[in-house]
Amino acid sequence: MLTGHKWFQNLPWYALALQAVVPPPLHQRSFSTSISVLRSNVVKQSNLVSRQCRGVRVYDGQRCTRTVKADVICTDESQLYCHSHQPKVETKLALPTTTTTATTAAVPASASSTSSPPILTPCKPLYDGWELWINNKLSRKKRKEIRQEMRKPLSQRDQDGYIYAYILTHGPRVPTSKYAYFKIGRTIDPIRRMYQVSQKCKYVPEIVELFPHMPSASQLKKRLTTANAIHHPAIIPKCPVSHRVERLVHLELSGLYPHAGFNCKECGTKHREWFRIARQRKPGGSYATDHELWMEHIRPVILRWIQYGIAVTAIQHQ
């Protein structure tokens, strides 16, 4: 699964987001061009993984067991077939419907049976190869929920923004010695949002990471302790379709880890979107740190769905 690839943890996602949301010139806005440009922007070097062929064997009707090499960001189903099952697409233009019907009627049955195969319609890339996006460790029900969310058309609510994550350093109900608590959220201004939390809940969030960019620690600390954060939004590159990305991240994490909502005594509300992860013991006997749990369990999930948001945005600009 893509979560296992450390490659996703080292890419400048804020730069990729900027490249994806800038539409190409009109004469270059073709499906094939956009996908190749997106792939060249994301894959700086060859990052190939083995995928099972999606073809079906003729003699027994079972799925082909061969494996093919594909980019880790591959969303084009035609690249997930072995040489024996690669779809054959005609390069000739399709005839109009009326002409095709008349021609077919005039051709004898014997000639019709030996005619060339019909022209295949290009696949919708984001609806192919679901396993490239969806974690196969999730339950069938949860995978279905994620597919339904991916199928929803983009709306005005799917705005660009930021995905933030911070940890709970002292739990109100459970000690953090054996568990780590992560909160994942979305905002249009991360500095303003963190300032509001610090003022409303009397708690300065310990931010783990901000996507797609993180200010320096000194800048962040200065902004969090200044009331001007409310009136001067931070100018940071944004994550495309951040609402959709946040929803997909929450769906996947909720299928892997239990929710841990907290009743805040300061603001009187229940804070949701917290996820609890048990600390595994390392070979030396000590428990995994917050940073280790973040890098292994949470961060790869967020990066993968940010990647999905970038791909959606690039295709919408065609």
From TrEMBL:
Protein name: Bacteriophage T5 Orf172 DNA-binding domain-containing protein
Domain (Bacteriophage T5 Orf172 DNA-binding) ranges: 164-279
Matches recorded under Pfam families: T5orf172
InterPro entries, per database record: Meiosis_regulatory, Phage_T5_Orf172_DNA-bd
